[in-house]
Design a protein that fits this description.
The protein is α/β, with parallel strands linked by helices and 235 residues long. The chain has two domains: 168 residues, Rossmann fold; 53 residues. The protein has nine helices and seven strands. The protein is globular and about 60 Å long.
Length: 235
Amino acid sequence: MSVKLTPRLDALAQQLETSDLLLDVGADHAYLAIHAVQKQIVKRALALDINQDPLIMAAKNVASFGLEAEIECRLSDGLAEVQEEEIDTVVIAGMGGHTIKAIIQASLSKAQAARFLLLQPNNGEEKLRRFLYSQGFIVKSQGVVNEKKHFYQWIKVVYEGKPREIDRFYGAYGDPLKHQDPDQTVAWLQWESQRIEKILSGLKKSKTKNAREKKLRENLFKLNKLANELTIHQD
């Protein structure tokens, strides 16, 4: 019996690489860890969560698949309860970019030692990406996935050691031209454009024209241009 993954988790699963240990931070039901062990992508996994209740559910799921020897459910605030020698593949998903940033910042040496970090924030992508580059991490691959009418960005990063500054647009959206699924990316760019248009429509009712409106219009232009470029490349 195989575990069934949601589109969001499946997108992460496709980015995993063969390794000894998967550390799944914010593991929730431990489905990603179960999948990775079942498919022999990893030998073992740690399902980590800051709260006891999700870990109880995760442990039940692990037991139902008979994987207690391969998957440990451990109470941990981020990577705090993970030993240096346990660091391998790290996944942090299912939370905001601010929380992901805080987890990495609190265990920076561990994050730097990881084979790679696979991150999927619910929001706050700009500040997270800018933080990562400022700390010497670089994005190796990136993409988006749609689940329940919401798009989630994912980024796969490694530590290079050279701090960089990136602009706010790249921080928020990365490089859509390098995404692995052009169709999904075009849909996401259009979704983001519609979201900005709604915000601009609301600002029209305001008599004050401010810097925020100017920045939103610049972003809207860039997003539409990227969507057109991707569409042309597909034709």
